[in-house]
Specification:
Elements (H helix, E strand, L loop, with lengths): L3 E5 L4 H12 L3 E6 L15 E4 L3 H7 L3 E4 L8 H8 L3 E4 H9 L4 E6 L4 H14 L5 E8 L4 E4 L5 E5 L14 E4 L13 H13 L3 E7 L2 E5 L4 E11 L4 E7 L2 E7 L5 H16 L4 H9 L9 E6 L2 E6 L4 H11 L5 E5 L4 H6 L1 H6 L6 E5 L14 H11 L1 H6 L5 E3 L2 E2 L5 H6 L1 H5 L4 H5 L5 E5 L2 H11 L5 E5 L5 H6 L6
Parallel strand pairs: 1-2, 1-4, 2-3, 4-5, 6-9, 6-10, 7-9, 10-11, 17-23, 18-19, 18-23, 19-22, 20-22
Antiparallel strand pairs: 7-8, 11-12, 12-13, 13-14, 14-15, 16-17, 20-21
Helix pairs in contact: 1-4, 2-3, 5-7, 5-8, 7-8
Length: 486
Amino acid sequence: MSKRVYFIGIGGISMSSLAVFFAVKGNLVEGSDIQACENLNSLCQFGIKYNIGHFEKNIKEFNPNLVVYNSAINKDNPELAWAIKKKKKLISRAEALAHICKGFKNVVAISGTHGKTTTTALISEIMREANLHPTVHIGGVLKSCCSNFLIGNRKFFITEACEYKNSFLTLSPSLGVVLNIEPDHLDFFKNLSQIKQSFNKFLENSKVKLFKINEFEYCLKSQKFQKYYYAKNVKKNDFGFFFDFYENENLIGRIQTNFQGEHNAKNALVAAIVANFYKIRIQTIKRAIKNFKGVKRRFERITKISGSVVIHDYAHHPTEIEKVIEQAKRYGKILTVFQPHTFSRTKKLFSQFATCFNQTNNLILLKTYPAREEEIKGATASDLFEKIMSKNKILIFKNENKSYVKNNHIYKNINYSYIKQNINKLKFSQNAHKILNSKLTKISYFETFDQAREKILDEAKNYGCVLILGAGDINELAYSLKKFRK
């Protein structure tokens, strides 16, 4: 019997695809989100209506018998409050995903602090190339089909597994993958030790486990077997990276990627391991990886302005930022634009954020995207601007033009006479090696996209790449630059 299912926060990248899965199963689906977004555009073709804004009348008029909500929804949300009051059946986004998984023979769940979306996409494309017709739930938009979901058969379900609030612990995958583990989501987890405990529990819940041992070395393990996979002779070329793919000591084949970044070569290796486990031919694996078109917001080339290539990436963690900046160096000098995502992440990783931009030449910081959070004192993008300024006094001294801007005003609070008198002491201060090797000589802070866009258009001609980073709505700024293409 079909149900009336209401999604609170239906515009989320995961929630929108889950809504489609429920709709194609014959359920009547509706939902709401706080504001219009790109993910909502594809819902209408599946007969899914949505409301902008969370109001009691929305859910009351629809009168669902099942309500799905995401982790950002508070109990005082008027729609959720009504559902609780009326004793409607409530399930979280993670529980909805787990419910869908039960209908598939094989569930492949990809977890990790970084690389989930790209790796999920690569595995999906390999399976599509092998004509296995997987059903896919992904945290990004596949360029090959312009969608964040694929409806396939019931043999394979490929999904990202997010660790936030331990949501991935609702899953019992046929194959569980852990790409890497670093401190993140520290508004929920207390420390790295607790994060590792959750990932270990995720692996315990997985029938077959795939996890990293060393750089370019992974272990595939179950109760019945244990295998080791490697990438050897990893080298960069004009197209991306190539490497020799080994199972134990047996060479399976040489794989060529068409995308830059050593981290992406590791993602390709993991995708190849998963495909090999499901007995997909190496020629099919090689062809799919070589022809991979990528995912939107993952080192996505947007346009070109004043001779500078505009790249947008979802990177919002210091480690991701450093890797993407390294990836962008092939274009020459870099102007980086960054919108911090959540105050809690900025606070917990503040010192890392203060140094992760050292290899860019010019940095524009934008007002923090708060997502689910209230502002935390000392953890805003403005605070980060101040910290980079004070921490890197040598960088300030290096810039003779004094191009340090806050809200369209030249930053005045710099004691240049002190720097000149104490330059030798500063050179040997804490983190001196990072400071002395830094390329950063300009930094700005702006509250609005309009202010940042004006600065980008003025500065772009001096750089080979404009790199726009963040997991919030900064993609709107990136895409808006298309109209200024030169």
